[in-house]
Design brief:
The protein has 13 helices and no strands. By secondary structure, it is mostly helical. Helix 7 packs antiparallel against helix 8, helix 10 packs antiparallel against helix 11 and helix 11 runs antiparallel to helix 12. The N terminus is likely disordered.
Length: 274
Amino acid sequence: MLRLRPLPLRLALPLGAVLFASALSSGCASSRQVRYASAEEAYTRGQAAFESRNYDAALQYFQGVFTFGRSDFSDDAQLGLARAYEGDRQYILAANAYRAFADAYPDDPRVPDALLGRAAALERQTANFELDQTDTRTALGVYQSFVDSYPDHPRLAEAQARIAALVDRLAHKAFSSGTLYERRGLDEAAGLTFERAFNAYPQSAWADDALVGTLRAFTKYAEASVPERQPERFRRALAAHERLVQIFPQSPLREEADRWAERARTGLSAVAAR
């Protein structure tokens, strides 16, 4: 059976694994007395530990494969590292290990799954939408790369579903920023933020929320403005209502939106009558 060229030690391991490997002596153990006499034994024991969910031991065994230099088990051990880090909820290290595998073995048939593994690990790192979403944006890019590179892959629908979910997460984050401004009485900032949220994520589940937020915030902002600035701000609010009616005519927020639109029209008429 043809084996792929193993990954050199310096490329196979993240920094922590390199430091670990340098502390071992020819097939011997860590502080937990993990022992193996060959690369094959280290990998086999690592796989058994992984299957029993003993991720700490699995990581040590998989790292131990590389203490023997290049071997027929280097590629499998690199992928094992990624999966063990993921199982241990060390998601950034998992993402890095998946990426190292894909970079080192671009022709391996497991690369598409490694890309999805990397994206999923990054996604889990920022599962709470209130956290900084840098890793979510990176995950979104990896999923999109998978879709573009493997349009006929059996897991294509899975990747597309994750893209939609991450877009919704980012939209939720953007919408929540507008809500925070609104709660503080900063209606202009709220309106601008809601408006940007819609423009950035018009296909998300939060798109109609963002339009109603824009309508509501600019109506309140116009009402508190000096008379000469009120018309443009009421019109901006009404423009958001018009977009909602056109794009989301069946939105469950329609009744609320109509009430705010009527309030904006009343304000605009009052300004015109002065």
